[in-house]
Amino acid sequence: MTFQQAQVIAVARDGIHRFSKAPQPGITLLAGLGVQGDAHAGDTVRHRSRVRADPAQPNLRQVHLIHAELFDQVAADGFRVQPADLGENITTRGLDLLALPRGTQLTFPSGAVVEVTGLRNPCAQIDAFQPGLMRRLIGTDDTGAPVFLAGVMGVVLEGGAVTPGDAIHVTLPPEPHEPLRRV
């Protein structure tokens, strides 16, 4: 894997639980919590479906990252998706987020560090945003098992600012690498 060109192209947050987020000139990551001012920030789960299941479980979904290359792929099928539309906090380019192993650390110039915890599972809200898009965000692997394409989730290890144009330094965890699973 090469990561020389990995960068942030957009950042977003929203203090209210909505599907899409509001693009921002910058966001602040808070260690152990997530994005300052975002409805999903907290040390325990904030995603409503996860809260209903067990409100005390740790929040492994503090930060949502999506690769902009996904927008290019779905555009070929007629879907128009822009940064923040799918609810991500950080939109990247030049980094195959889905290929990263669990525990990968993404470091930004401010010193902020996000550790990748797993895959975002596409939900029915995606079809409410654009009918048919959810089906496009779930692929299959060689065995026929579902592959989630809607980005990755992470937790904030070190706080700091993240802005469009920031380079992303990638640190892989020690081997053996654990593949990403839905969180």
TrEMBL record:
<dbReference type="Pfam" id="PF03473">
    <property type="entry name" value="MOSC"/>
</dbReference>
<feature type="domain" description="MOSC">
    <location>
        <begin position="22"/>
        <end position="171"/>
    </location>
</feature>
<protein>
    <submittedName>
        <fullName>MOSC domain-containing protein</fullName>
    </submittedName>
</protein>
<dbReference type="InterPro" id="IPR005302">
    <property type="entry name" value="MoCF_Sase_C"/>
</dbReference>
<dbReference type="GO" id="GO:0003824">
    <property type="term" value="F:catalytic activity"/>
</dbReference>
<dbReference type="InterPro" id="IPR011037">
    <property type="entry name" value="Pyrv_Knase-like_insert_dom_sf"/>
</dbReference>
<dbReference type="InterPro" id="IPR052716">
    <property type="entry name" value="MOSC_domain"/>
</dbReference>
<dbReference type="GO" id="GO:0030151">
    <property type="term" value="F:molybdenum ion binding"/>
</dbReference>
<dbReference type="GO" id="GO:0030170">
    <property type="term" value="F:pyridoxal phosphate binding"/>
</dbReference>
